[in-house]
Amino acid sequence: VEPEISFEGAHLMCETETVALDLYAKLIDILKEVGAYMPGIVLKLSFLSPGRMSMETLTAAEVGRRNVEVLSSRLPQDIGGVMFLSGGHPQDEVLEYLGAVKRQPNKIRNLSFSFARAITNSVRDR
């Protein structure tokens, strides 16, 4: 399941979090309502962050912490997993964000990533 929250725009991190909290709660409610097998669900999510045109700057550690807080507050324990997508963020940024999420003590148990374009673009450009 791949709900998208756009990185485009000038929104602040708190606005992204508000949208994500609402979206993830509604998504989980709908999945449960239709009888989806939650251990079989993998959510493909981009990292929550300020918009590309925002003047707000956050450290990777702060982005990681806030992503884990949002996910931990909305996802059921029996969710199959979370696969992070690059979501249009530059390669160096997504790698830092992923490392920061990985270092969080209360992260979701099954985390992975799918950065095909974000990782291969730098190799292709050489």
From TrEMBL:
- On the tree of life, the source organism's domain of life is Eukaryota
Q: Could you cite one Gene Ontology molecular function of this protein? A: fructose-bisphosphate aldolase activity
A Gene Ontology BP annotation from the UniProt entry? glycolytic process
A single Pfam family it belongs to is Glycolytic
The record's keywords, sorted A to Z, are: Glycolysis, Lyase
Main EC class the enzyme belongs to: lyase
Q: Does the keyword Ribosomal protein apply?
A: no
Q: Which SUPFAM superfamilies match?
A: Aldolase
Write the Enzyme Commission number(s) for this entry: 4.1.2.13
The metabolic or biological pathway listed in the UniProt record of this protein is: Carbohydrate degradation; glycolysis; D-glyceraldehyde 3-phosphate and glycerone phosphate from D-glucose: step 4/4
Entries under InterPro entries matching the protein = Aldolase_TIM (IPR013785), FBA_I (IPR000741)
The family classification in the record reads: Belongs to the class I fructose-bisphosphate aldolase family.
Spell out the protein name for this chain: fructose-bisphosphate aldolase
